[in-house]
Design goal:
This protein is mostly helical. Helix content is about 75%, strand content about 0%. The longest helix has about 30 residues. The chain is elongated and about 80 Å long. It starts with a helix and ends with a helix.
């Protein structure tokens, strides 16, 4: 008798949780049926996946440009990551990843520039990533000669 009495709150909790989940999904299904299939433009404060990918790509490209410029300015320096072969390699890697991620955002973007899909940032990431590749290539050529 005592065993069933101790399980009563647990059964009540499980029943309430199950009914809440089923009721929530049951009420959400009709609302989901009325949604539009056209993608909406993101608001100014919304951080969509495209915006996030484009921002990361642009920041990686910018880091590659900075490290590549430091590697060109101080090719024989022994201090810091912007020196010599290491700086050229880091600039090339950051530029390559920035270009690849920017190209991925450009290829998968639904709308045009200004819709919140990150297309404008992806174009910026492509340009900055190409600049990082150029600077890294120049720094690499300088260290090998």
């Amino acid at each position: 008798m005592f065993a069933s009495r101790n399980l009563r709150p647990a059964r009540l909790l499980c029943t309430a949780a199950t009914s809440a989940l089923l009721g929530g999904f049951g009420l959400a299904a009709p609302a989901a049926a009325y949604t539009s299939s056209a993608p909406l433009a993101a608001t100014v404060t919304t951080m969509s996946a495209g915006r996030l990918g484009a921002s990361v790509a642009a920041l990686l490209g910018l880091a590659g440009v900075i490290v590549g410029a430091l590697a060109l300015a101080r090719p024989a320096s022994r201090v810091g990551t912007g020196s010599g072969l290491l700086g050229a390699t880091v600039a090339l890697a950051a530029g390559l990843v920035g270009v690849a991620l920017g190209a991925l955002v450009v290829a998968t973007s639904d709308g045009g520039v200004g819709t919140g899909n990150g297309l404008g940032g992806a174009y910026v990431a492509l340009v900055v990533g190409l600049a990082a590749l150029g600077l890294g290539g120049l720094a690499l050529r300088r260290t090998r000669s």
